[in-house]
Protein: Thioesterase superfamily protein
Amino acid sequence: MTEAFFRTRNSRHGIELIPQAEAASGWGEEHMRGLAVSSALARAAEQQMRTIRRPDLTPVRWTVDLFRPARLRPCSASATVVREGKRLCLVDAVLEQDGRHVARASALWLAPGQSPPGAAWSGGARPEPPPLDTALIESQHRLYFTEETGWGDAARSTNDARNTIWHEQIPVVEGEPVTSFQLAAGVADVVNVAVNLGSNGLEFINADISLALARLPVGPAVGFATTERIEEAGIAVGTAVAFDRVGVFGTATLCALADAYRAVDVRSFRPIT
Structure:
């Protein structure tokens, strides 16, 4: 079984999340990766929804601000309800470490219902998942794809081609099953790799994650296919579609800052020296 991002520990401050090796980032030995941060916040948001007993609602938007470096040290995630109504619920979550907030998230749940009869345009990217018999890169739990090279390891994507990433679920906490929302919310952080991976490796670090969901993903893995990227003066913004083996289920956007001096070689997830 894939190792989880965290294990839990009871302390005088409550239940703490203890980062495991899977939570380590390629940006530095002491940094926690965005997948782990977003997953912990998503877990807290879902726990809050269970507390208020709203199984009638489904998550449709997930936004994370990564405003301080999260370290590989004990942390805690908590969530509060901002607004609850008959057809919606807005939840805020924070990740706290060493007495201060290092990341925050906002989640919107809506009540699903019957689609209206009118027709509206629906189109765009329709990415295909990898063949079922294609083995993932075991150490990274993912595959990379470009139209020129097909599915494979990161070496196929270290160029200026448009990228797609397919990523399997990673448990958030040891002993807990991964929910579909945790899968989508956590893996959404790899959109930065899909959007910003280039000929010199990953030279941009994302400051946020934004995910919009028409439905929850089906299965143990999801993909993100880059649809647009714009860069100016060391700032990059990008968009991607989220898909599973059923089809496209959402979209993602991010904003990132250039960090060429600490560029990451995604084949090993170590800084390029």
Q: What stands out?
A: The helical segments are 34-51, 180-187, 191-196.
